[in-house]
């Protein structure tokens, strides 16, 4: 079953969240570089270049999974939005984050039977160490967060393309260039002025997730607080070159 027209925007968000999770799992298999104490004046070591299936194959696999899984979700979850949560308290209780184990079990039980087999075949889950619930939990949480985020006051800064990979055909998310979790520390240590705290960059979900994997919130605030600085990193340049080759098929 294909998503309906009304679900298209939410489906796009779900597909990106799923794709991001698939990429994160597969790139995590690359050999990790041991952490070392940074040397003054030297840039942090770049993350390894993503390895694994060809991007077009990975996109096709992710879209196949996303189509089947999204169609299996309850209608109220497929059509969830910031406004529907404001109008119905019961929806807030049911789909509020973090999701309960009961809700995750219920959703997983209604997913197509072959989904579990496909996740195992791609090495995305490894029973009994991991299962479909553990893989889908962050995907569903990211999806709910994406579709229920209130309209930002900085909406007029929105770009038509991701500011890292330059893809125009995927949903955009906003990334706080100075993460909100460290605002108090930023002001206390005079890293930035207060008026700079709410600057954002518009990124696709995959690039947004990559940025948060490449550095901690504190490092982002201190060293990678503009898009230009982020894009100077070699690992970001390699990532952007790789991910911009992903092109979703027209449905």
UniProtKB/TrEMBL annotation:
Source organism of the structure: Cladophialophora chaetospira
Q: What is this protein called?
A: HNH domain-containing protein
Task: Name the PANTHER family on file.
Answer: HNH DOMAIN-CONTAINING PROTEIN, TUDOR DOMAIN-CONTAINING PROTEIN
Give the start-end ranges of region Disordered.
Answer: 33-56
């Amino acid at each position: 079953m294909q998503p309906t027209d009304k679900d298209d925007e939410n489906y796009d968000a779900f597909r990106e969240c799923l794709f991001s999770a698939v990429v994160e799992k597969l790139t995590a298999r690359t050999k990790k570089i041991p952490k070392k104490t940074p040397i003054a004046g030297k840039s942090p070591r770049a993350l390894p270049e993503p390895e694994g299936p060809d991007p077009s194959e990975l996109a096709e696999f992710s879209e196949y999974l996303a189509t089947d899984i999204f169609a299996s979700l309850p209608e109220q979850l497929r059509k969830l939005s910031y406004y529907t949560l404001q109008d119905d308290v019961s929806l807030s209780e049911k789909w509020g984050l973090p999701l309960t184990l009961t809700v995750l079990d219920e959703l997983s039980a209604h997913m197509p039977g072959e989904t579990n087999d496909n996740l195992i075949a791609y090495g995305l889950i490894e029973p009994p160490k991991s299962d479909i619930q553990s893989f889908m939990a962050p995907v569903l949480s990211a999806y709910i967060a994406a579709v229920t985020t209130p309209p930002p006051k900085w909406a007029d800064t929105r770009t038509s393309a991701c500011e890292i990979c330059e893809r125009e055909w995927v949903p955009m998310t906003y990334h706080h260039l100075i993460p909100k979790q460290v605002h108090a520390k930023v002001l206390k240590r005079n890293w930035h002025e207060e008026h700079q705290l709410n600057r954002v960059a518009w990124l696709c979900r995959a690039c947004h997730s990559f940025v948060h994997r490449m550095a901690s919130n504190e490092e982002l605030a201190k060293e990678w607080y503009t898009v230009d600085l982020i894009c100077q990193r070699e690992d970001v340049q390699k990532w952007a070159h790789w991910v911009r080759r992903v092109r979703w098929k027209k449905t």
